[in-house]
């Protein structure tokens, strides 16, 4: 079903979107944010696990996997399945899980359906409790993957890698850590993740605040009381709490804060778009009736539909596939009416569907939020994919509580912080606790986010090699860095709606390559210079696409609104024919057993 929006209204929307973007554009872009230093240095520490003394490790393994989040876990699991037994996971965290280890804020849950978001459900015999599951269940699933594939035995947790260096004479990588380890690995895979290094709002006076202050990724339950599984935060019952930021994280924790805090003040710069979540339990009997191999079918079905393709049925049926469905219906209608089938028709269909969706999202705010001024301030004026779309059935309702106050700053952000609270719009708000929901570093140097440098042949570091933009085959293999595998999604499928799907597919390919290298007793596997250069011709730059467009309101999806140079665009690029075509291509590439573009020596 489609709702017609008049041309006049469309024009109004265009102008309003641009005006709202312009209000928020700032010359400092990403540099506005502050690193967690000084008083906030501990935001990088692990508050959950005590570090246990152990002997330094100086042995050799076949594969070292740096980062034990979903990318590292899935890759390690596939390697074990492929017969490579001595795989070593290394992580600064005291357990596996990556972002799902660190993020324990109240209300945290996946925004993509658990049936496809949680990898290896069939392999681990796991039934998700609901369509969207809470963070502690996701963390437990990560642990189950590690248990199922025996990944704990060899793992080095609470261990930060400090350097990964190629040793030409032995064709081995040497991995050094902050625990004194110096061991060798024939192959290294790095899955250090894009979203884990907290950044702080660029406002003066944060240090001066005399109350409690913490970042959402290190939720301080000793201050708030309660627990990640949802127990009431009794420590906040008589407190005035302020939260800075209204992104995907804040949207999930604000309902819990509203429920438990004496007073809650939400400092908003840009509202998120909040679509229906419609969560419901998963029936174990129905789950048991699924045919083996179901998860791969569900993954592909979601990705086909979400990226604009056609399928007989929509297995996942969520906010992501809904918008795509609308676009497809419009394309079909337009083509039947005589428009050509091509990118222009697709773009018009996309814009019309997006206008319709965003009008519904804004109408939803009016239908839920009783105070009209608050409702107006909560309406997003940008395209849905300009920022991470949010799905929640309690967030907007929270603003009807008498103890919850939205402090909208009309795109300006908070003015400053002092010992007693936060200034916004020239008004001081006294607070006992400040929660920073200000997000994570995205566009900064890889080595800064990862915490170590990778040095390949001829002492060239990966940072130097990629100084003028990322270069790779499949986003995975890099010339001059033999036996190294980067776990990510740039220069590959670049699928952001379901990040683990990228890892599930790439893990199959990486396990096949490493198993082959072991079988043929190759000392080195390396992408040729030519294959790497040719791959750059098969990916397209991020900018100008729907996600990351400079027309969007600023955020981490579009480099805070600063147009990217050609080189930088390489870092966020994806396969030219889209995610589904990429997965099909990669499957065919690995299945031939030739691994074209790689040299086995
Ligand atoms: P974001 O970067 O999305 O949000 C940061 C927020 O802080 C924004 O609202 C930003 O406003 C605001 N902000 C920054 N500086 C100021 C300031 N000076 N004054 C007022 N507000 C300010 O971080 P999140 O942690 O919310 O989300 C990061 C990502 O993590 C998500 O996009 C998503 O990919 C992932 N995530 C996934 C979840 C899931 O799947 N379950 C759940 C939660 C997060 P502005 O918008 O104006 O920049």
Written account of the structure:
The chain has about 600 residues and is of the alpha/beta class. A hairpin with a 2-residue loop joins β12 and β13 (about 420-425). It has three domains: about 5-45 and about 200-275 and about 350-435, FAD/NAD(P)-binding domain, CATH 3.50.50; about 60-195 and about 440-540 and about 575-600, 3-Layer(bba) Sandwich (FAD/NAD(P)-binding domain), CATH 3.50.50; about 285-340. The protein is globular and about 70 Å long. Strands 1, 2, 3, 4, 5, 16 and 17 form a seven-stranded mixed beta sheet that branches. A five-stranded parallel beta sheet has the order 6-15-7-8-11, covered by helices on one side. It has a three-stranded antiparallel beta sheet with strand order 12-13-14, with no helix packed on it. It binds NADPH dihydro-nicotinamide-adenine-dinucleotide phosphate. NADPH dihydro-nicotinamide-adenine-dinucleotide phosphate (NDP) binds near residues 109, 247, 269, 437 and 555.
What's the gist of this structure?
It is built from 20 helices and 21 strands. The chain is α/β, with parallel strands linked by helices and 601 residues long. The chain is globular and about 70 Å long.
- Determine the CATH topology of the largest domain: FAD/NAD(P)-binding domain
**Beta-strand level of the residues, as a percent range?**
5-15%
Main sheet: strands, sense, barrel: 7 strands, mixed
Mean pLDDT: 94
Any idea of the CATH class of the largest domain?
Alpha Beta
Detail the topology: elements first, then pairings.
Elements: H1 7-24, E1 60-66, H2 70-81, E2 87-90, H3 99-102, H4 114-117, H5 121-124, H6 135-148, E3 161-167, E4 172-177, E5 182-190, E6 212-215, H7 221-224, E7 240-244, H8 248-260, E8 263-268, E9 274-275, H9 284-288, H10 294-306, H11 319-336, H12 343-368, H13 372-377, E10 390-391, H14 395-398, E11 404-408, E12 416-418, E13 421-424, E14 427-430, E15 433-436, H15 446-450, E16 453-455, H16 462-465, E17 484-486, H17 499-519, E18 525-527, H18 529-536, E19 539-540, H19 566-569, E20 574-575, H20 579-591, E21 598-600
Parallel strand pairs: 1-2, 1-5, 3-16, 5-17, 6-15, 7-8, 7-15, 8-11, 9-10
Antiparallel strand pairs: 3-4, 4-5, 12-13, 13-14, 18-21, 19-20
NADPH dihydro-nicotinamide-adenine-dinucleotide phosphate binds at residues 24, 109-111, 195, 201-203, 244-250, 252, 267, 269-270, 388, 413-414, 437-440, 555-556.
């Amino acid at each position: 079903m489609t709702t017609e929006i008049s041309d006049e209204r469309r024009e109004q929307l265009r102008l309003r979107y641009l005006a709202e973007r312009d209000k928020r554009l700032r010359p400092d872009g990403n540099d506005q944010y502050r690193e967690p230093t000084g008083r906030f240095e501990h935001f990088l520490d692990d508050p959950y696990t005590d570090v246990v003394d152990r002997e330094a490790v100086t042995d050799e393994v076949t594969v070292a996997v740096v980062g034990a989040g979903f990318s590292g876990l899935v890759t390690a699991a596939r390697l074990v399945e492929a017969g490579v037994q001595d795989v070593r996971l290394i992580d600064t965290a005291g357990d596996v899980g990556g972002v799902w280890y660190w993020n324990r804020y109240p209300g945290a849950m996946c925004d993509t359906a658990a049936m496809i978001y949680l990898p290896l459900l069939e392999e681990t015999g796991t039934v998700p409790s609901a369509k969207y599951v809470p963070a502690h269940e996701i963390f437990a699933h990560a642990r189950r993957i590690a248990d199922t594939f025996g990944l704990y035995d060899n793992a080095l947790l609470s261990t930060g890698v400090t350097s990964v260096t190629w040793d030409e004479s032995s064709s081995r990588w040497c991995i050094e850590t902050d625990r004194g380890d110096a061991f060798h690995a024939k192959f290294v895979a790095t899955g250090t993740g894009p979203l884990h290094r907290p950044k702080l709002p660029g406002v003066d006076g944060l240090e001066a605040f005399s109350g409690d202050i913490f970042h959402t990724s290190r939720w301080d339950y000793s201050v708030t009381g309660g627990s990640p599984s949802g127990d009431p935060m009794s420590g906040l019952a008589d407190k005035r709490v302020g939260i800075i930021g209204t992104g995907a994280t804040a949207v999930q924790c604000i309902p819990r804060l509203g429920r438990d805090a004496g007073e809650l003040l939400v400092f908003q710069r840009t509202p998120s778009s909040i679509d229906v979540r419609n969560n419901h339990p998963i029936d174990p009997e129905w789950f048991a009736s699924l045919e083996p191999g179901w998860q791969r079918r569900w993954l592909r079905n979601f990705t086909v539909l979400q990226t604009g393709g056609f399928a007989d049925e929509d297995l996942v049926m969520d906010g992501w596939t809904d918008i795509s469905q609308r676009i497809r219906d419009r394309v079909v209608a337009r083509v039947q009416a005589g428009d050509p089938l091509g990118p222009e028709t697709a773009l018009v269909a996309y814009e019309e569907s997006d206008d319709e969706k965003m009008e519904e999202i804004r109408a939803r705010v009016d239908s839920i939020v009783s105070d009209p001024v608050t409702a107006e301030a909560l309406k997003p004026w940008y395209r849905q994919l300009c920022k991470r779309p949010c799905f929640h059935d309690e967030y907007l309702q929270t603003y009807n509580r008498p103890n919850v106050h939205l402090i909208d700053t009309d795109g300006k952000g908070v003015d400053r912080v002092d010992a007693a609270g936060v200034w916004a719009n020239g008004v001081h708000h006294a607070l006992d606790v400040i929660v920073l929901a200000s997000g994570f570093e995205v566009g900064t140097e890889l080595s800064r986010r990862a915490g170590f440098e990778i040095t390949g042949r001829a002492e060239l570091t990966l940072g130097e090699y990629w100084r003028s933009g990322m270069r790779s085959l499949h986003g995975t293999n890099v010339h001059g860095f033999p036996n190294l595998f980067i776990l990510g999604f740039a220069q590959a499928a670049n699928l952001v709606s379901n990040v683990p799907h990228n890892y599930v597919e790439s893990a199959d390919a990486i396990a096949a390559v490493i198993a082959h290298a072991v079988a043929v007793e190759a000392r080195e596997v390396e992408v040729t210079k030519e294959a790497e250069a040719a791959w750059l011709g098969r990916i397209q730059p991020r900018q100008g696409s729907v996600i990351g467009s400079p027309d969007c309101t600023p955020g981490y999806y579009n480099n805070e609104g600063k147009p990217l140079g050609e080189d930088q665009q390489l870092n966020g690029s994806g396969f030219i024919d889209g995610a589904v075509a990429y997965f099909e291509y990669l499957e065919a590439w690995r299945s031939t057993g030739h691994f074209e573009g790689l040299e086995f020596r």
